[in-house]
Design brief:
Bound molecules: zinc ion
Shape: globular
Distance between the termini: 9 Å
CATH superfamily of the largest domain: Ribonuclease Z/Hydroxyacylglutathione hydrolase-like
Oligomer: single chain
Radius of gyration: 21 Å
Strand order of the largest sheet: 7-8-9-10-11-19-20
Helix content: 25-40%
CATH class of the largest domain: Alpha Beta
Number of helices: 9
Number of strands: 20
Largest sheet: 7 strands, mixed
Number of domains: 2
Structural class: alpha/beta
Order of helices and strands: HEEEEHEHEEEEEEHEHEHEHEEEEHEHE
Length: about 350
C-alpha cells in the first residue's frame, strides 16, 4: 500500500504520500518541496509556482531568486523554512535536514497523518552529521554502483586541486568549470591558497554573494565586465570561473582548463590529464557507493526505493541494498499516474 504512495514519477517528481512531491510537479499534490537548485531537480517549477505551495530552505530560496528572478521573494506560496524547524501542512509534518550536497540542499522527511514516516534523501554527501529517520526512503542513486566506489578521499582531491591550480597559475590564467555548489566549495579552498584575482559573470558573482552571506569564506569575485576585471584579464594571472552552461572550456586561447567533475572519472586517481592544458578533477558533492549504503543504513528505513529518473544506478543500488544490507528495495517505476487513484 505504502509503495503506491511513495515513488518517483515519469517527470522526476518524488511523491512522499498523497500530498507532497519533491523536485517535480504532480497535479494532485498541493505541496512541492524543493531540495536544492540543480537543474535535474527543477522540472516543472513554473507549474508548481502557479498551483502548489513550495517549501525550501532559506539558502535555496535566495539562490533561486538569483537564478530565476526577484519576483520569487514576494510570492506567498514560496516558503523558506529555517534550519531545524518543521512545517505542518495538509495534515503532514515536513522536516528539512541539510544533506551536505551544496548550499541549501536538504533531505526531506514527511510524517503522515497515521504517524508513518516517508523521506527523500535528495542529493547528499557522506559522511553527514544528521541523517533523517524514516520507514520508507527514496534515495538518490547517482553513484549507486559498486564500480563507482572511489579509492581516494575528498580531502585528497582537495589537496590535488590546490596543487594543480597553484602550479598552473604560474604559467597563466586558470579556468575552472563546475556545477553550482561544487564551484563554490573549490573557491573556498582556493581562496586560502592563492591571492590571484577571481573573475566570473555578474550572475555567478551574485550567486557567490549568497554563499558568502551564509558563511562561506570567499573573497568577493570580480564581475567580468568591470574595470578591475578587465585590468587583470590583460595581466594574465587570474582565476576565471564558469558555471555549467557558461561556455566551453575547450579551445581556450591561453591558460589551463580544469573541469571539476567525478562523472566518469577514474576511481583510483582523482586528476585526469585530458591534454597538456586541460584537466578533470574528481571533485564531487555526492556520496560514493559505500557512502550511499552507509547513509541508507543510518536512516533505519525498512523499504528503500532507488531513484531511477536521475541517470544513476537505481537497479544496481536496489540489488546492493537487498543483498548487502538485507533491506527491502526496488528501483522506482517511473509510471505516470501510478501514484494516484490506485
Ligand atoms: Zn544536485
Ligand atoms: Zn541530482
Amino acid at each position: 500500500m505504502m509503495q503506491s504512495l511513495v515513488d518517483v514519477s515519469a517527470n522526476g517528481g518524488i511523491a512522499l504520500g498523497g500530498k507532497v512531491v519533491c523536485d517535480g510537479f504532480l497535479a494532485n499534490a498541493p505541496v512541492r518541496v524543493q531540495t536544492h537548485i540543480h537543474a535535474d531537480h527543477m522540472s516543472d517549477f513554473e507549474s508548481s509556482k502557479g498551483f502548489q505551495t513550495i517549501l525550501m530552505s532559506e539558502p535555496t530560496k535566495e539562490l533561486l531568486v538569483v537564478e530565476l528572478d526577484a519576483e520569487l521573494s514576494y510570492r506567498s506560496n514560496v516558503i523558506a523554512i529555517p534550519t531545524g524547524q518543521s512545517y505542518e501542512i495538509e495534515g503532514c509534518r515536513i522536516e528539512l535536514v541539510p544533506s551536505g550536497h551544496m548550499l541549501g540542499s536538504t533531505q526531506v522527511g514527511v510524517t503522515l497523518h497515521d504517524g508513518s514516516r516517508v523521506a527523500y534523501s535528495g542529493d547528499f554527501n557522506w559522511p553527514l552529521n544528521n541523517v533523517i529517520r524514516t520507514d520508507v526512503l527514496v534515495v538518490d542513486s547517482t553513484y549507486g554502483s559498486p564500480d563507482r566506489a572511489r579509492q581516494y578521499s575528498q580531502s585528497e582531491v582537495n589537496d590535488r586541486l590546490i596543487d594543480l591550480v597553484l602550479r598552473r597559475l604560474r604559467q597563466g590564467p586558470v579556468h575552472i568549470k563546475a556545477h553550482r555548489g561544487t564551484l563554490e566549495r573549490a573557491l573556498e579552498l582556493l581562496d586560502g591558497a592563492t591571492q590571484a584575482p577571481i573573475i566570473a559573470t555578474r550572475k555567478l558573482c551574485k550567486e557567490v554573494d549568497v554563499y558568502r552571506r551564509f558563511g562561506y569564506q570567499i573573497r568577493p569575485v570580480l564581475d567580468i565586465d568591470s574595470e578591475d576585471a578587465r585590468h587583470f584579464l590583460t595581466e594574465g594571472q587570474y582565476l576565471r570561473l564558469y558555471g555549467i552552461g557558461e561556455g566551453d572550456l575547450f579551445g581556450l586561447d591561453e591558460g589551463t582548463a580544469i573541469n571539476l567533475s567525478a562523472f566518469m572519472a577514474s576511481t583510483t586517481d582523482p586528476v585526469l590529464e585530458l591534454s597538456p592544458k586541460a584537466f578533470r578533477v574528481a571533485m564531487t558533492c555526492h556520496a560514493d557507493f559505500e557512502g550511499t549504503l552507509r547513509y541508507i543504513e543510518a536512516t533505519r528505513a525498512q523499504l528503500v526505493i532507488t531513484d531511477n529518473y536521475r541517470g544513476g544506478h537505481a537497479v544496481d543500488l536496489a540489488n546492493a541494498v537487498r543483498s548487502q544490507l538485507g533491506i527491502d528495495a526496488a528501483p522506482s517505476q517511473l509510471q505516470p499516474g501510478r501514484y494516484w487513484g490506485e
